[in-house]
Automatic annotation (TrEMBL):
Residues 777-789 have a biased composition (Basic and acidic residues). Residues 777-845, 962-984 are annotated as: Disordered. Residues 15-357 form the TTI1 N-terminal TPR domain. GO terms for cellular component: cytoplasm. It comes from the Eukaryota. Residues 819-839 have a biased composition (Acidic residues). This is Armadillo-type protein. It comes from Cercophora scortea. It holds the Pfam family TPR_TTI1_C. Residues 809-942 form the TTI1 C-terminal TPR domain. Transmembrane segments: none annotated.
Length: 1141
């Protein structure tokens, strides 16, 4: 029972094979038409392959050599007639051979059969040597062929095959040809699967053969075939999987053949020999498979291997990490296993291993690393040191390359080399000195070859920044500095690599020494060399402080010499930075990168000292702030970041608080520069920004600065741009000064604000009318009494009142003319009265604060520069007048003389050729009108008659023309309102007659329905007040309003329209605050009649003076609501017409 049980699975499997093998045998043996039966044969072969592989997967112990012979029987007949069958049949046959060898014959495969199958597979894949191929072999067939060859070599072992001398020659030929076909598949094919299967086949060859002499026979061809896909330019086309497999197989081949343990005897012979062999002793008989291994052979082979490795090791720059890892394993393995046999390759292997050093592999306890080998073989340390020195000295040359990847690899190599040297405790002064010089020269080359960044940073000028939250925001996140060198996006990785190198190069002591050496170059160099030394010294010191910060938290190392040298080097660096900031110039010839690094050094010093840095602000705060006015955007950005860092480090909530708290330092610095006329546009902008941030509380302390500004204006008044920058400072002084809550000393008798606004007269009521009548009666009675008592007197013979300052003469006159005592008493009374008035006036002359005096002085100065040829300066000064006038108005004794002073130059600016200046003049005159009130009444009246009214009419006409024709290009007449449409002013009928045309024949006895009731002035002559009815035709010729007119391309945004809008604002201010006579009022009403309905301000101002005239003007345009006519006994009023317009 026990003997039959094991045969049951085998018998069952045999029963599965018979239905396939029997018909397959019949077809293979008896079929005469092979092509006709090929399809059936192919189906049986696929079925047979499926049955065999399925059994191998489920229970391979059932399979043995007997079953393999049974299955192989029909295969032999197919192989004999292989040329008559299609390629697919041959492919299926080869696909079956591999499982038969692997699971059937295994090691019991007959030697002769193995030789025959090797020949068959070699010819099927590569063809018969020296004969053309009969047909193309598909890739699938080649892949299956390589798998079958690998299975045969792995199962039988070539060493076993060669053991029989009777078959040695045939085995040599078969194996040689098979390996040749395999190598061709590796080197000549570009198909991924073919190359991978060929490599697996070659791996099987060198794994299964244990005879080193046999492997040496195939070593040259194998290395050559493996080197081909690993060398340029094919390595760029070869896939990473193939490269990794090639490197692994090459590693296996070299270690299996040239390992020190196998070459020990030859190496000993080489060491003991007095003279080397002449050459490798290789037998010339091709039938001999073994090579005689001699010292000469080893030397020649090592030389050839070095050449091959020099080509293969170029893969160390490959982008694939798997390829680099495989190459690293190759280098480390050869340095370990072939340390003596490949001693000539040590330098290239060490260099490649250093370049491919992986931190994870260094920390691994399983894999051997270069660091481990250096500890085992001390000679490797010299190679490591030599390689690192070559890298360091060659770095500046590589920095000239146009490829960023080359630069990055060179920097990364030095970083890995320095870390390895530090781990191996390789301390060399030569390396340290060469490293500092190389870094400096490399940075110089990088700066010279770098292209400026094309990215434009939108950083506004200082005037905009002073109100920007990026500068004065509370508790904001501080933006980092933009790179000073290598600032383009394409050089970002290179910049990061070199920063990493500087951070990790050597210990903190070595970094401090390198920084001190760079400081020695710093003061003696200039240009790019100075920038490179400066930047490198700063980065090295930053790295040293970063390394020591962790230790400082646990230990106090300030007393150590290393810490002292570190502090001394940084103090020298900071002193140089402070001198760079102090000598800042606005010249574009200076390299901005030097100043940017100085700003970074200052911020870093503040971050280290924290609040202890505040005393240093005396020297650096003002220079840092001046960079906000730089013309270089990068410097402005650095200045913003530096101020933010200074404020944060010194404990201020914001940059505004920083500047306000240190305003005295900055004022002193600015005043000193102004006094020495060391003035730059940046300094004036800094002063403007500082005044804006500090507000009114700084104004009283700017006496010296303003005085120096006035002196500069006197000395440089011929430079319009500079004068404009100085006046921008004064304008900011005025802007902040008017915000002061105390321009005058407190006094209840003087109002803090003036109000000259004209208001509508209120209703008197019955009591008021009666009181007015009584006052008129009293005046009439008093006038009559004075007329009766009036006695004609002679003209006076002397001036009234005594002469001032001549009391002696007055006493003498009293003695000579005692009868004039009464007159003297009267004169004395007059004198006393005048004295009291003068005292009252003096009482109003209150003491003024420094801010008030300063603003008065600035306003007085504007008159001299309002005629400047620079339009922007003229506009700035007019805006200054608009700003300062309301603040100075409360003290009329001081303000009105100033108004009288600047009036002539201000009024002429209305005729300025620049429209924006004319608009600024309108605003300035409006502000003066609101502040001075009736003081300007006579001046406006005079100017109105001298052409001011014509200027308003011209501005109105140009605006109307621009609206009609798109800026003056339209045709047609300009509808200027004439005598037919004049406003109804305080002259009553005279104004109405100019506005409304009398209809002929309409003055009949009866009132016309179109007539209106007009008060007649006849009563003024006759003494009888009567109401006469005049029939007038209301046929207004008012042009349409601007809202309904056909606007041009720009409409209200044309210059003419904007000038007219400003002029309307000035007219509104004149009517609101200044007393105007009737004629001037009528003309103003006529000018603005078109905008009365839309402009509430001008309408309300005119209504406050004469509401009836305004109503009549609106009625003439049809813009008033209809009202029923009043009913009064004895009087008939005209009825309003609906839609009179």
């Amino acid at each position: 029972m026990s003997s039959t049980q094991p045969s049951n699975p085998r018998a069952a499997f045999l029963q599965k094979l018979k239905p396939v093998c029997v018909p397959l045998s019949k077809l293979a043996i008896r079929s005469t038409d092979k092509a006709a039966s090929a399809k059936e044969v192919l189906g049986l072969l696929d079925t047979l392959v499926g049955i065999w592989t399925a059994q191998a997967s489920s229970d391979a112990s059932v399979l043995d050599d007997k079953l393999a012979d049974y299955v192989f029987f029909p295969i032999t007949y197919l192989l004999r007639s292989q040329d008559q069958y299609p390629v697919r049949v041959i492919e299926a046959t080869i696909r079956l051979l591999g499982p038969l060898v692997q699971y059937g014959w295994k090691a019991t495969m007959p030697q002769k059969l193995a030789q025959q199958l090797l020949f068959f597979l070699s010819f099927a894949i590569g063809g018969i040597p020296d004969q053309p191929k009969k047909r193309e072999v598909p890739e699938e067939t080649i892949i299956e062929g390589y798998r079958a060859i690998a299975a045969i070599i792995t199962a039988t072992g070539p060493s076993t095959l060669i053991s029989s001398s009777s078959t040695e020659g045939q085995t040599i030929s078969a194996l040689s040809h098979s390996i040749s076909v395999v190598l061709d598949g590796i080197s000549a094919s570009f198909t991924l699967l073919i190359q991978l299967e060929a490599l697996q086949c070659l791996r099987a060859v060198f794994t299964s053969i244990s005879d080193n002499a046999i492997l040496a026979k195939f070593l040259p061809g194998t290395v050559s075939a493996l080197t081909k896909p690993l060398s340029s330019p094919l390595q760029q086309k070869t896939q990473a999987r193939v490269l990794v497999s090639c490197l692994e197989v090459l590693n296996l081949v070299l270690v299996r053949v040239l390992a020190d343990i196998k070459m020990r005897a030859i190496i000993n012979k080489t060491d003991n020999a007095t003279k080397p062999e002449a050459g490798p002793q290789v037998e010339m008989d091709d039938t001999k498979l073994r090579v005689e291994l001699t010292p000469a052979w080893l030397k020649a082979t090592a030389a050839q291997i070095k050449i091959a490795l020099s080509s293969v090791l170029k893969l160390r720059t490959h982008e694939s990490e798997n390829v680099q890892s495989a190459l690293d394993r190759l280098c480390v393995s050869l340095l370990d296993e072939c340390h003596l046999s490949l001693a000539d390759c040590e330098s290239v292997l060490v260099e490649s291993a250093m370049m491919l050093e992986d931190e994870e592999r260094q920390s691994s306890t399983i894999q051997t690393s270069l660091r481990d080998l250096a500890n085992i073989y001390p000679k490797l340390g010299d190679s490591i040191k030599s390689t690192l020195y070559n890298w360091i000295t060659g770095l500046p040359r590589l920095m000239q390359s146009g490829e960023e990847r080359v630069k990055q690899l060179a920097i990364r190599n030095i970083l890995r080399g320095t870390k390895l040297a530090a781990a191996l405790n390789m301390d060399s002064s030569t390396l340290n000195d060469s490293l500092g010089n190389s870094l400096r020269d490399s940075i110089v080359e990088l700066i010279k070859n770098s292209k400026p960044s094309k990215i434009t940073v939108n950083i506004g000028a200082i005037g905009d920044i002073s109100g920007n939250t990026d500068l004065v925001g509370l508790h904001m996140a501080i933006e980092p500095y933009r790179p000073v060198i290598l600032d383009s996006e394409g050089q970002k990785t290179t910049r990061e690599e070199i920063s990493t190198l500087i951070t990790n190069v050597g210990s903190s002591t070595q970094q401090a020494e390198l920084a001190a050496a760079m400081l020695g170059y710093l003061r003696d160099s200039d240009g790019v060399d100075q920038i490179a030394s400066y930047w490198l010294a700063f980065e090295l010191l930053k790295s040293t402080f970063a390394q020591s910060s962790d230790l400082d938290e646990l230990f106090d190392l300030s007393s150590l010499e290393e810490s002292k040298s570190q502090q001394q080097a940084f103090q020298e660096l900071y002193d140089f930075s402070a001198s760079v900031l102090s000598s800042h110039s606005d010249s574009l010839d200076n390299d901005w990168r030097l100043e940017a690094i100085a700003l970074e050094v200052t911020a870093f010093a503040a971050s280290r000292l924290k609040a202890d840095f505040r005393p240093e602000l005396i020297d650096v705060l003002y220079p840092v702030t001046t960079f906000l006015g730089s013309q270089i955007p990068q410097l402005r950005g650095h200045a913003i970041t530096t101020l933010n860092k200074l404020a944060s480090a010194c404990g201020y909530e914001s940059v505004s608080a920083l500047i306000v708290d240190n305003a005295d330092y900055m004022v002193n610095s600015i005043s000193l520069r102004l006094n020495t006329f060391d003035i730059s546009p940046a300094s004036t902008k800094v002063l403007t920004m500082m005044i804006r941030l500090t507000g009114p509380k700084l104004i009283p302390f700017l006496d010296d600065v303003v005085a120096a500004t006035f002196a500069a204006l006197d000395n440089y008044h011929g430079y319009p741009v500079f004068v404009e920058s100085l006046f921008s400072v004064l304008s900011e002084v005025v802007t902040q000064g008017v915000k002061s809550d105390m321009l005058l000393l407190e006094d209840s008798s003087v109002p803090k604000a003036v109000d000259h606004k004209k208001r509508k007269p209120g209703s008197l009521g019955i009591k008021g009318i009666l009181a007015t009548l009584e006052q008129r009666a009293e005046r009439a009675e008093r006038s009559a009494n004075e007329a009766k008592q009036d006695v004609t007197q002679s003209h006076p013979t002397k001036p009234w009142g005594p002469e001032k300052g001549n009391e002696a003469k007055s006493l003498l006159d009293n003695l000579l003319n005692p009868g004039d005592d009464d007159d003297d008493d009267d004169d004395k009374g007059v004198e006393e009265k005048q004295t009291e008035e003068e005292q009252a006036v003096d009482k109003l002359d209150l003491p003024k604060t420094p801010t008030y005096s300063l603003l008065s002085r600035v306003l007085t100065l504007t008159q001299h520069y309002l005629t400047s040829p620079t339009p922007t300066l003229r506009k700035l000064l007019l805006d200054l007048v608009s700003t300062v006038s309301p603040a100075l108005a409360p003290d009329e004794n001081a303000f009105l003389p100033l108004v009288n002073t600047i009036w002539p130059v201000a009024i002429t600016r209305l005729h300025d050729p620049e429209p924006f200046v004319a608009m600024a003049a309108c605003r300035a005159l409006a502000a003066l009108s609101a502040a001075a009130g009736d003081f300007l009444s006579s001046r406006f009246k005079t100017e109105w008659g001298n052409g001011l009214g014509k200027w308003f009419a011209k501005a109105r006409a140009e605006a109307w023309k621009a609206r009609r024709g798109g800026g003056g290009g339209g045709g047609g007449t300009t509808p200027v309102r004439g005598s037919g449409t004049t406003g109804f002013g305080r002259n009553g009928a005279s104004a109405a007659s100019r506005m409304l045309g009398l209809r002929p024949g309409a003055s009949g006895d009866s009132a016309s329905s179109a007539g209106i009731l007009i008060p007649s002035r006849v009563a003024a002559q006759t003494g009888e007040g009567t109401l006469t009815q005049t029939s007038l035709s209301l046929s207004p010729a008012s042009p349409p309003s601007s809202s309904s007119s056909s606007l041009g391309a720009l409409g209200r945004f044309t210059q003419a329209a904007q000038v007219w809008e400003a002029a309307v604002g000035l007219l509104c201010a004149i009517v609101t605050y200044v007393r105007v006579d009737d004629d001037m009022f009528d003309e103003i009403l006529d000018l603005v009649s078109d905008v009365l309905a839309e402009n509430d301000a001008i309408r309300e101002a005119l209504e406050a003076v004469n509401a009836d005239a305004v109503w009549l003007a609106l009625y003439g345009q049809g813009r008033v609501e209809w009202m029923a006519a009043p009913v009064v006994e004895g009087v008939v009023f005209a009825r309003m017409e609906v839609g009179a317009a």
